[in-house]
Amino acid sequence: METTERCDVAIVGGGAAGLSAALVLGRARRRVRVIDADAPRNAPAAHMQGYLSRDGMAPSELLAVGREEIARYGVELLAGTVTCIDGHPVDDEPGFRLVLDDGTAVEARRLLVTTGLHDDIPDLPGVRERWGRDLLHCPYCHGWEVRDEPIGVLGTNPGSVQHALLVRQWSDDVAFFAHTHALTDDERRRLVARGIEVVDGEVAGLVVEDDRLAGVALADGRVVARTAVFVRPDLHPHPDGLLAALGCEHDDAGFVVTDPMGRTSSPGVWAAGNVADPRAQVITAAGQGSAAAIAINNDLVEADTDRALRALAPRPLRDPRNGERPPEGPSWTA
Q1: What value does the mean pLDDT take over residues 143-172?
Q2: How is 307-320 classified by DSSP, letter by letter?
Q3: Most buried by CB count within 10 Å: which residue of 5, 59, 70, 149?
Q4: Peptide linkage before 44 cis (omega within 30 of 0)
């Protein structure tokens, strides 16, 4: 039998952005449901960095603390995946009906999507196993931990060269593995000018010894010793098509377009975190979730006020003697 949950705001995604928004809305005494599939992007990482007062905390610990905090304000967390979202307007207001994979339905006046993104990383031996450990993405997240080590950068797309130039900030020993990226003469000059070794040839996989990255193996048999490798993956909002199905405008890269407060082009729909901003770190996503929550609450305040005004609209007075509507003029009373 289907269970229906009713709330002011449904938040799809329970990462930093979603939990931050839920905290603000819960404290604003809104009825909130957070729907989360428990598959955070940064789950493979042992620590998250650059989050003031939480630097070095395990991502799972941040989520656990956040869940405890929102529970204090009556916010409910529903475990599951949203399989369907339909518009469900009520009283000339936007509204939404969400169905979860266990059959639970959630009806909400407003919707905030914070489902993040997924990384499309190279399909090479050892890559998936080392992802988030010593095969890394963000230098600001992991650069300090591998500073002064022999670092590699894997060339997979046009942004890879800029990634290598950025990584050079943390180590004097950086090698750029061209792999499938055809370097232009200008790109090669820029790398060489910064003292970055260019290794031509296709990469065959990663060399791992005693559960630690030891080097990068090339298809021609060479092995270049490295203790950490950075890759700039292709980024895709997760899940693909959810916000598009709601009619939200997207940019050329496929990410939803929002205003500074997270409002999308579809009435009643907000987005925050990596689903809208692929460059947002954990602390940035949390801030975006907070900003979206304030905007959503303000929007609901306006809707609540409009509803109250409609309820107070003067009703036609009637002649108590025959029930007819009175003529124009001040002499009639209720």
Answers
A1: 96
A2: HHHHHTSPPPP--T
A3: 70
A4: no
Asked if 126 contacts 240 with a C-beta cutoff of 8 angstroms, the reply is no
Residue matched to tokens 């598009």: 244
pTM > 0.85: yes
Q: Is pLDDT larger for residue 174 or for residue 123?
A: 174
Strand ranges of the sheet holding 203-209, from the earlier edge strand across to the other edge: 203-209, 212-218, 223-225
Name residue 84's beta-bridge partners: 99
Residue 289, phi then psi, degrees to nearest 5: -65, -40
Coil, strand, or helix at residue 206?
strand
Whether residue 231 contacts residue 122, with contact meaning beta carbons closer than 8 Å, is answered with yes
Give the strand pairing for 174-177 and 32-36: unpaired
pLDDT value at 19 more than 90? yes
Q: Is the pLDDT confidence value at 206 over 80?
A: yes
Type of residue at 208:
V
| Cα–Cα dist 246/98, whole Å | 12
Tens of pLDDT, residues 52-101? 999 999 999 999 999 999 999 999 999 999 999 988 787 778 999 999 99
Q: Which residues pair with 197 in a beta bridge?
A: 175
- Residues 295-304, mean pLDDT to the nearest whole number: 97
Count CB neighbours of 130 within 10 A.
18
Model pLDDT for residues 28-44, shown as the tens digit of each residue: 999 999 999 998 888 88
CB 233 within 8 A of CB 251: no
Q: Which of 295, 298, 128, 154 is nearest to 215 (CA)?
A: 154
Distance between CA 309 and CA 60 in Å, rounded? 46
CA distances, 315 to each of 308, 310, 326 (Å): 14, 11, 12
